[in-house]
């Protein structure tokens, strides 16, 4: 019992020393982190997608918020072919890699998408790339999602996948309009 009390006293003393130390300040957000704030808000969405011969048009919504100063979280909902599909996307910026990074999941399938990408020189278009399953062949291929800031209230989105011939195929386009 005495050993337990002594051990707890030593641990308490060590914990107080650790807490008393000055921890380094967190890094300051970069201009790329600031750029992500353009997504923040409530949005109406419309999308058109084509998978081979099949054409799908749907509407939905997206709610976007910042997690601290470093991440935007996009919580989406679309209704393709009468089925509600929910999604969750994160986008941040990694200063060490000098790349935007992120993830995407949806209730439509079990794929965990991991993004990496860049912003164009004009600062208007964010392009994110990921590897994932080709919906037509089942093989793994490269995908590219682009978000272009048209105005503060309009973001255009394009989804592409790399074809077997090495050319990018646009399979989805969409628009986000800020709710007033």
Predict the CATH topology.
Answer: Lipocalin
Strand content: over 45%
Number of helices: 2
C-alpha-based Rg, rounded: 22 Å
Mean pLDDT: 89
Number of strands: 10
Q: Approximately how much helix is present in the residues?
A: 10-25%
Q: What is the CA-CA span between the terminal residues?
A: 66 Å
- What count of domains describes the coordinates? 1
Which CATH-level-2 architecture?
A: Beta Barrel
Query: Which regions contain 5 or more consecutive residues with pLDDT less than 50?
Result: none
Which structural category fits the helices and strands? mainly beta
What are the secondary-structure elements, in order, as H or E?
HHEEEEEEEEEE
Q: For the largest beta sheet, what order do the strands appear in spatially?
A: 1-2-3-4-5-6-7-8-9-10
